Amino acid sequence: MFERPDLLTLLSALPSHDQGQKQKQERDQNRPFAWREGKPLSHAWLVAQVAAWRRLLSRQAGSRFALYSNDSATFACILLGAWQADKTIYLPGDVLPATCANLNALVDGYLGEFPHQYAPLTLDTDDDNASHNQAEPEFKALQPDFPGLVIYTSGSTGEPQAVPKFLSQLATEVASLERLFGARIGNADVVATVSHQHIYGLLFKILWPLTNGRTIHAQQIGYLEELQLQPGGKPVVLISSPAHLRRLPVAFTQDQAASIRAIFSSGGPLEAEVAFAAGALLGSIPVEVYGSSETGGVAWRQRVAGADDSWQVMPAITWRVGANDDVLEICSPHLADSGWYALADQVQLIDPQRFRLKGRVDRIVKVEEKRISLDALERQLKAMAQVADARVLLIGQPELQHELQHKPQHKPQHKSQHKSQQRQRIAAFVVLSAAGLQILATQGKLALNRMLRNGMAHAVEAVALPRSWRYLDAMPVNAQGKTTRADLLALLESPAPVTASADPAELRRKPLVRVLEQETHRVLLELTVPADLLYFNGHFDGAPVLPGVVQLDWAISYGRQYFALAPHFLGMLGLKFQRVILPDAVVQLELLHDPKKSSLAFRMASTSGPHASGRITFGASHAAS
User: Fold this and answer.
1) Share of the chain above pLDDT 70, in %
2) Domains parsed from the chain with CATH numbers
3) Is the pTM of this model over 0.85?
């Protein structure tokens, strides 16, 4: 049986110089620590890679390095190597230009999949060879007070904030998870739909399994349909989020469901109907985890039919209901100090170990001196038959407007400055139900706006009724499955005006495009297919459908727009067309770039299900005939 160390001694416990333990050591070193594309990566490989990264980083000046990698196995090796080299790791949620620009003033170097202009460090041949020649590197036990991480909040309620973490906080949280759920999941492998670049994914899909000898999967899955049966029928634990669990597959085989030992969900509350639907289809009702980047895990629940929706406090956490606004206050070993920490959530005490969430204090805003709960507005919208999901935001900053009014103006204001002087208003972002879509199609947006406003009027003051409406096919989510304020605000931006010189025929060859998610090697786009698209002409008369060749052309075109693809098309692999795409359809196009294989995988899907998928290969020159 593998002797499980804690997080701080994870690597130092692996090698052994005791000859009597040699056979056991070889057994431990040869067992898989991760799976990548169906192939095992052993603990010996992990140890060698960590040693190589430690050696490389020990030669680097500076103590702060940014890390971004989509591959969980590579990520784990770099992270552990950096800690062994006494480097603090900054974990951004993405590598978009603005994110990298902000990091540039904070870090001494970059690791992983950052754009080439940031010169991310890579292992050279000497490092790799040296790592293989050192079968038993000496690793040290990590110090509890070492500032191992700086992570960033999701940005769901504002700008992402940097949160430092000592290794003692991470180690204590890993121990809490094992105490709570270790017996439940046993030796199951760990598969995830969420990124490890945030605290939830980092703990649940990297640090917890590695510390306790469970095998991880290097690739993040984008859809639950991608969940594969494990060799030998080994069970899996699924680390997911509400955004992913709301998109349950149409069908799931009995063998797939039987392979899931447990499901975890975090990032926001999971609706009861979604939790029960997941349980019915996947064979396990998700365990929901409540917490934040700042606090780590705070509480958990697993819904049972007929039970209340309260949360159970995690071990070692002391809590109380604060005197101001009934906010939750905690003392936790997952925090940096032992003082009381006030969260932004209002709670109701159920008993000494349980509470019910009532809403967020930071979502109570003032509009024309009236206190308005944005959570209450969302509940009103979601209760209507026309609405499947909804988010509301307060738009406009009166403080900024006041500042601009009293600041001397030496130059004419730029157009963008006028935006900040707009009157405060509530904006609603709504995913419509089938009933809502029917009203939108037959009566139009203005009629639907009026209908929803009237439906809220009995419970909401007039100043709180939304003045801006945006109807979405789905809420935009980031890699962690969260909908951020920045993503919603971006939806209010007007599209670029069509210039007089634009070719009308060219405009009718492309869909309307909106970016939902964007990462280094992945992008998720929303495509609205115009009814007057040229390609519908003659394909087919009386029943137009979008040709498959056009779908391929769009995948390649947008692939070249977002990624540095090799210049020449070489071929197609696994091409499937499952459902037709009709005029006015709204579909999601997911593109995955694999630079090592010089390929672009694409998938088109909508609320109707999958439409098309495949993998396109490229090369520096045409394939030989």
Assistant:
1) 85
2) 368-403+417-478 (3.30.300.30), 504-619 (3.10.129.10)
3) no
